[in-house]
Write a structure and sequence with these properties.
Number of domains: 2
Distance between the termini: 36 Å
Shape: globular
CATH class of the largest domain: Alpha Beta
CATH architecture of the largest domain: 3-Layer(aba) Sandwich
Strand content: 15-25%
Structural class: alpha/beta
Oligomer: single chain
Number of strands: 18
CATH superfamily of the largest domain: NAD(P)-binding Rossmann-like Domain
Low-confidence stretches: none
Strand order of the largest sheet: 3-2-1-4-5-6-9-10
């Protein structure tokens, strides 16, 4: 990375300004939520400086469109798209398992704001889970890839909204107090900063820096959960006041922390308007300053331990729940309970069988299972062993069937992928060892 010095930026600077003269050739960057808004502009700007950028998005079609837009506006840009659903630990684990190269920059940009009261299948409040826990899982999962870089950077998009709440370790998920979307958002944004503080301490020996930032006041789709009247009033009040940034300006601080040579060894800090923020007793004008509770090293260490424990428990529960779903599915097939089979199969389920090929959709899977079983005089499924690795389940079974008065047995291994209580992928192997090998290659969500 080469640039001239000194450089001075402020609230009016854009990502393009920050990256002028910076060469990121050979640097790899992963941006969550890179399909729109500040994330897309951050990705575009970094790609324009030569970085190889990966957009991690829930909607891969939207991500592909964003990638093409970047490549059209920046000829020669290298942009990849990966699926990442920050409501599903399995999605996080799959991205981590598939990442097979050093990672120079991770930008935790995706997030939600002031959502109605919602909880994940694990029982976690949605804003805390989306904004903090799943990004924590992603960053810790990619730790080895970051360490392999030698000088990696983790950039965490927080908000001045952290002013409204510290992390309430006694009631993270509003079990004892009425749900408040502002407090929930504030707590999640404080968690973002605390993660950067503790990651800076833990990962400093490996050359990894971690910093958090406030992008500024930017009108994007992030405000989609606001009350419409409140949003209209806020936009009217901010018009012409100089407090609202463009998306290009909102991406500037992320781009700075991801690239600036002068920040190579700066870590565990909170930035705004392209400079380190002042510690304040209360955020001023709703935008500026960082509270002490967001930088507290004791709280940061505690949050790391709590987050690790929550994820471990969530993965264990995912494994147990997935195993129960597969047991119910097998029982429903044996009992001829078509209604229950359809209930347990995802609308997009994929069934792969060496003889039957690949089938998609619950109706196709059900019709095939019915066709196979009705061609035999009698069928008995024996399932001597079933085990799980997170959301993946291995069912070793024997199909005993009678055809023309002669009994035969076929050993089969089924590898199932279960998400949100439904089977989404089901592959059968006639070679048990091959099935066990395939299962072993899948990420273990319990670790």
């Amino acid at each position: 990375m080469k640039t001239s010095a000194p450089r001075h930026f402020d609230s009016t600077s854009t990502a393009a300004d920050v990256l002028a003269g910076v060469d990121l050739s050979g640097r790899s960057v992963l941006v969550t939520g890179g399909g729109s808004g500040i994330g897309r502009e951050t990705a575009r700007a970094l790609a324009s400086a030569g970085a190889r950028v990966t957009l991690a998005v829930r909607d891969t079609a939207a991500g592909d469109r964003a990638a093409r837009q970047v490549e059209q506006s920046e000829p020669g840009a290298a942009v990849d798209v990966r699926e990442l659903d920050l409501s599903d630990v399995g999605s996080v684990d799959r991205l981590v398992a598939a990442w097979d190269a050093p990672l120079d920059v991770l930008i935790a940009n995706a997030g939600v704001m002031k959502t109605p009261e919602q909880y994940t299948p694990e029982g976690w409040e949605l804003q805390f889970a989306t904004n903090h826990l799943w990004h924590f899982a992603l960053a810790t999962g990619l730790h080895d890839a970051l360490a392999a870089s030698g000088n990696a950077r983790v950039v965490v998009v927080s908000s001045s909204g952290h002013d409204s709440s510290p992390v309430d370790f006694d009631d993270l998920f509003f079990a004892r107090r009425p749900y408040d979307p502002d407090l929930a958002y504030g707590q999640s944004k404080t968690a973002n900063v605390l993660f950067a503080v503790e990651a800076a301490r833990r990962w400093q020996p490996e050359g990894i820096t971690a910093n958090a930032l406030m992008p500024g006041g930017v009108w994007t789709d992030l405000q989609r959960h606001w009350d419409p009247d409140e949003l209209a009033q806020a936009k009217e009040a901010s018009a012409g006041g100089g407090q609202v940034k463009s998306v290009e300006q909102g991406a500037a601080t992320s781009a700075l922390l991801a690239s600036a040579p002068e920040l190579e060894h700066v870590s565990g800090r909170y930035f705004e308007d392209c400079h380190q923020a002042d510690v304040v007793a209360a955020v001023t004008d709703g935008l500026h300053g960082v509270r002490e509770h967001a930088l507290n090293p004791v709280a940061a260490a505690r949050l790391w331990d709590v987050s690790s424990a929550l994820l471990a428990a969530g993965r264990r529960a995912a494994g147990a729940g997935a195993e129960a779903v597969v047991r119910r599915l097998i029982a429903a097939i044996v009992e001829g309970r078509d209604d229950l089979v359809l209930q347990l199969l995802s609308p997009d389920v994929e069934f792969v069988n060496g003889e039957l090929g690949t089938l998609r959709g619950p109706a196709a899977v059900l019709a095939t299972m019915r066709q196979v079983t009705t061609t035999m005089d009698d069928v008995r499924w024996d399932v001597p062993r079933i085990s799980s690795r997170g959301g993946h389940v291995l069912a070793e079974r024997v199909d005993n069937f009678a055809r023309g008065g002669t009994w035969a047995s076929i050993p089969l291994v089924g590898v199932f992928d279960v998400r949100d209580g439904q089977v989404v992928h089901w592959r059968e192997y006639f070679d048990a060892e091959q099935g066990r090998t395939a299962m072993a290659a899948l990420p273990d969500r319990r670790q």
